[in-house]
Amino acid sequence: MPATPGRALRPTTKVMPGQARVYNRSLVLQSLYSDGPQSRADLARVTSLTPVTIGALVSELISEGLAVELGPRAGARVGKPATMVGFDPSAAHIVSIDLSRDVMFRGAVLDLAGTVLVTAEAPRDGRLGEGAAQVALDLARELVEKAGRPVLGIGVGSPGVVDPEGTVLSAPNLGWSGMPLARLLNESLGRPVHVANDANAAALAEHSFGGATRSGVLVLTVGLGVGAGILLDGALVRGDRFAAGEIGHLIIEDPGPPCACGRSGCLESMLSVPRLRARLAELPEIERQQAISKAGTSLGIALAPVISTLDLGEVVLNGPPDLLGGAFLDAAATAVRRRVLPVVGHALELRLSTLHENAVLLGSAVLVLSGELGVS
Amino acid sequence: MPATPGRALRPTTKVMPGQARVYNRSLVLQSLYSDGPQSRADLARVTSLTPVTIGALVSELISEGLAVELGPRAGARVGKPATMVGFDPSAAHIVSIDLSRDVMFRGAVLDLAGTVLVTAEAPRDGRLGEGAAQVALDLARELVEKAGRPVLGIGVGSPGVVDPEGTVLSAPNLGWSGMPLARLLNESLGRPVHVANDANAAALAEHSFGGATRSGVLVLTVGLGVGAGILLDGALVRGDRFAAGEIGHLIIEDPGPPCACGRSGCLESMLSVPRLRARLAELPEIERQQAISKAGTSLGIALAPVISTLDLGEVVLNGPPDLLGGAFLDAAATAVRRRVLPVVGHALELRLSTLHENAVLLGSAVLVLSGELGVS
DNA sequence: TTTTTTTAGTGAAGCGTCTTTATAAAACGG
DNA sequence: CCGTTTTATAAAGACGCTTCACTAAAAAAA
């Protein structure tokens, strides 16, 4: 017998025995959420639960306000007309906070369908540590007060390494090291709080709102820093030290340009928006396209092993389209396709995000939706 | 955050009250399997089920022969003496088949603890397609007959891309394309059959028998080809086209040595055992160490993005120790640590496998153990 | 028009599995 | 020798799903 004391019992199967009801409930809710209004009979077919069970679950959801009856189905069919049931996106609101920008924290109130209803900003004014946390807290409080419905929860996308309990283990930009952000917000605001890394949140947003449908998706966020989020079968990869996706300081050129991290040739030192813009500004017009292509190729070379190893189906870039679109994207795609197995390269979709700067806000909302309702 | 089900509903994981029982049963079995003999009260504590439930589950397991009572606990304590219950590795046998070697298919009979009891080989004699499948089938049949206990199932590690139903979608070496291997063996032998890619099987073996305990593990198998298996939280990454880990033909040098795949600079063209040995043979003694180091560095450069992106905790190399140990391993480790985030590089364990050529056989057995009993 | 078929939805009874509560057994400690 | 602690099982109850039986309403067929 493999004597491996202390190895945890399989945590992968999230479905616990007593949780069967909860699971089935979220199965129904998920179907209403992503497939739109359906009759109870439709739900029974798609979930392969019995009509009786569906009836009970739906009336529970209706009594909570999460679902509503929408009247008879349009278009005539044989048999008793079905009563359509739909998800009600206005049942509650979500407060979302994006801490990934340097000078301004951004926040929003969203409905359950991810529609942004209210936005707000709060200048950080260079504050670090507790001070920065206070800015985030005040912004969250302001938005909770502005929400016109019960607040389902508060989602936060933070730079740095975030553990599953919502403690920011390390975020140098904000002067945070072991900052218990989720606990802080929860104790002050009395609402469920979910915190994740900003790039990971952006990846969730692509899955739920950006049309990323493959089972293996990598989302690369390029801004002040460079970060990634990986979704396998819709679930975020967390990593051994919760640092999955922290590839900004992966070295891809040796030797390369120096980086703030103390080393050189980091992905961030070559691709981050300020660094890339600065480099381009130094060049004459005609050499810029080439420099952009070169950067794209570097990225492609770095991503190829990841795409190949995980057999990813989709790679999404989120950042300024004027930098990442066109030549950059083409060069990256070419570099990847030259390097990976043809069958993988052919099927791979490599594209820009359509969510732009809302990705982190939307992703933070997904944290709440999936944490509180089991929906995404 | 919560590992949420993907956008699509997954009717496969439908949870009925009856499934809860199965889950709890495997929870108990898993604990007995990996943590060793315990009393019913111990099991109740570790699984957080009630003593009553444990009592019922344990007597079910005992009646099936999977568990046995081992008498009172050694060493006196307060209270009624506990009766120890243990997993019985000899309750059944497993037939394992390794198709990864070129000239010989290897097979074995193992007990449930992974102890190899009988081995057998079957020469393929260059047969391809149906012929090769027939060799595998005959080998499996021979081993099923040699098993001294009921055969729990048949596990197969095959080169190429294998889908979850056990169909080998593509294995050029064996002339297979869409070969329904699991169905074939199941129909002929009447036992449950589980098929997986050979490198993926080797990764499972490292997890269950090789002491790989981190939540993120990559196992690189270097032999005639080069392949990988990635385990996240104990579960294999499958990939969008079931091709996860197929990194043999990832291009890491451009230009590089030509490869059988038609391109050049593939990982396999540089690292596969025959190619590496051939290259070394051409060199004078003094240059060999350097060539080995160079190969290790190339591997490290290719793996660094993967390790960084997934925040892996452990990388295991399986292959000839005379090639992969020493300079190769050191060079790979150095190359990786130079490139990834220091916090990731420090914690990373990069080592050789201790399972050697049994990895695929053991991993195929794990397929059966986890598929049939839910233990690993 | 009337009857049959098809689809939608709900109530009642039953079954499996977990939990709670109660009880018995066996060891230690004062 | 009697309370305390720990182990284990038995009996009763709760929960949630399924099956079976039924009503409801509309199209299709006779």
UniProtKB/TrEMBL annotation, chains A, B:
Protein name, per record: ROK family transcriptional regulator
Q: Short name of one Pfam family for this protein?
A: ROK
Q: Which organism is it from?
A: Kineosporia mesophila
Signal sequence bounds: none
Concerning its family, UniProt says:
Belongs to the ROK (NagC/XylR) family.
Q: Which superkingdom, per the lineage?
A: Bacteria
Q: Which InterPro entries match?
A: ATPase_NBD, ROK, ROK_cs, WH-like_DNA-bd_sf, WH_DNA-bd_sf
